[in-house]
Predict the structure.
Amino acid sequence: MSQTEVTAELARWIVDLRENDVPPEVRREGVRTFVNWLGCAVGGSKHETVDAALRVLESFSGTRSSTVIARTTRLDALSASLINGISSHVLDFDDTHLKTIIHPAGPVSSALLALAELRPMSSREFLTAQIIGTEVECRIGNSVYPDHYDRGWHITGTAGVFGSAAACGRAIGLGPRQMQWALGLAATQSSGLREMFGTMTKSFHPGAAARNGMMAALLAEAGFDSSEHGIEARRGWANVVSDKRDYGEILGELGRRWESALNSYKPFACGIVIHPAIDGCRKIRDEFGADRVASIDRVELATAPLVLELTGKTSPKTGLEGKFSVFHAAACALLRGDGSPEAFTDEAVNDPGLVAMRARIHVRTDAAIHEDSVSIKVFFEDGTRLEKRIDHAVGSRDNPLTDSQLDEKFIKQARSILGDDRTRILLAKAWRIGASENPAAIARATVPGVEEKSS
Amino acid sequence: MSQTEVTAELARWIVDLRENDVPPEVRREGVRTFVNWLGCAVGGSKHETVDAALRVLESFSGTRSSTVIARTTRLDALSASLINGISSHVLDFDDTHLKTIIHPAGPVSSALLALAELRPMSSREFLTAQIIGTEVECRIGNSVYPDHYDRGWHITGTAGVFGSAAACGRAIGLGPRQMQWALGLAATQSSGLREMFGTMTKSFHPGAAARNGMMAALLAEAGFDSSEHGIEARRGWANVVSDKRDYGEILGELGRRWESALNSYKPFACGIVIHPAIDGCRKIRDEFGADRVASIDRVELATAPLVLELTGKTSPKTGLEGKFSVFHAAACALLRGDGSPEAFTDEAVNDPGLVAMRARIHVRTDAAIHEDSVSIKVFFEDGTRLEKRIDHAVGSRDNPLTDSQLDEKFIKQARSILGDDRTRILLAKAWRIGASENPAAIARATVPGVEEKSS
């Protein structure tokens, strides 16, 4: 395949795709992606990270067209997309494209929902644009993964901006040349470092990708031109940010192979790589009981190498840091049976019992162990031992959350913020994205105290 | 020197530097930097690139605290910094730190002046913050140049965001830890690709760097935390974006060696690397006359290698592309004696006489030739020939623009936009930055029809 027209061919696909050419199962996964994203954005909406960003953005907001999820403040669409991207990611509870560890909905759905209140679009158009956006970011991510990620780029930010630009550009009806410019403007704003993991700035990345991608689409619409080869040029994005570049991942089987349909949803509020450990430790607790696990002397985890690389913090001090400690996560799963957002609070990581338990947990990595698997050996104080193997952790592609597990996850996150009734109404609306439900009405239904009729 | 505390040590210097410790000659160069930047921002203020960006940003602007240079529209400080960064760079007429080809004032002065209308600061504080910002971006640029630039990064964007964050952070009084966060937030937003050269998006880079750096400082002030080792961490900025990393360039002789005082100012409205060719061709025209140069059969330029790498376009179609064609620039200097913004219009690059002349220009690169030098051989139709050598092009460090040449450049750019009287008043105000002149009053004095008393 020609490597000289990657941006042009991708732009043409984004512009030309007919809604009816998106297979039903792909649309269905798109709905699940949206439901999961919305629950996470509600769940994260009161986080201190969101408060801090809002303190800055409130006075810089223009026409307040758009909802800040689950808050009474309204902001312009660009600023709202930034905040909602932060909310949806701050609990590390969002979706994951497992091939690249991209969290697809954060950059894309955060931008699109904010945009939908500025530029009205049908529910069906919304879903198509969201699917296109997540498809584009995952394909662009595939083209440079793993080298790009290994180098230190937070791929949700760097690839996400393309997804937002594609989704927003599609939704506002850019032509093919404008779409090339939008992708070029996305390429030149692509950013986000893994060094920020464990700080508030990590969740800034999907927010910034949402805002910058929307800005790219709006600038292109206004005639602000850019390179028409932003992805593949000799000094284009892929060459600058990665040693690996496989453009077949971007253009191959477009419209037939759907990366967006490979999305997965986390049952636990932390990086996907420690889900097998949490899943296994919870099962051990379920089987043997709280009293028995309290008498554990030593735990040995055998995991994929990425587990220690990403979550090797042995002494986390804050809840955010706790998400990057397989030791804390395993200890909390054993002692509390918990992998929810409450497992990753400042309180939890400083709990003396958990601190004592995490010191008893030892990790050995093994390149032969798949990233959705773990092997756990437990040694009790009385000399007995047991072994537990997880082949496919809950939430992985081979063991995905069911719709009703997605409901449970949504309700658990939203109930304390919206109350039971509003949570139930919002959840029902969210499942109707792509069908009957006006996206702008969904956005407004996240705000406590705002009454809105279903459209 | 320890490589583990680069961000911390730099942050402490930014916060602790006393105004009186900035040497007078460094302050003087800071004033010249500001005057040159302001003239360029006025000169570029009516460009179609600015119009296009403004069409998008107007409805997204919050509290309209800040002046858009030389326009009646006002915007919030973040949006104004973005537009003013575009205006100051769009004619490629701005300043250059020759070691790195960073254009220092675009990201820094654009942010600071917009901020000064939101958060009042004295003229002296403004100048100190500007000097700190340009110092920081040039030092960070030095630490990764040339590998980072060779890889394809537009260093004015990627390093500029640190300069803006440092300047804005200093101006709003961040403490040392907040300043580390601001630098981390800058690191994670660092972006901009050379692939965009020749399009409107090139000038988006200093604008985005200005806006993103200001956002970094404001977020840090609001308690939005970030890595405290954003520059030097294993997966921090420098390791991710460059194979070369020399932290001695960042921390060495801080406060004694001043990179900001090495700034230079362009006499011609295009990339600095083709200035020697323009300077030489103009001198040939001056010496031999317009009639004689019209009979040129062939021109041979011997230049530094970067000249062809950056400006090797043989058939530019637009004025913007013309800035990246040493062939066009040399032809225009020979036939029109012109290197001003008028030399780089769509009209000029499509002028049949210039098109014919540029086909007669041939370039040979030689690594032994310094970037401020050129050797020119001219062959006339009658068989005669001449040779011209430029050792230090006008505007280079060894042949800098004088204050009165800066005045001429300012007046030439501003007069057609502001008229003679207002241009003269504005220029006088600009030279008083750092002394008596309120920065916010300078910003307002760029706007036609707005009357403002000097403070």
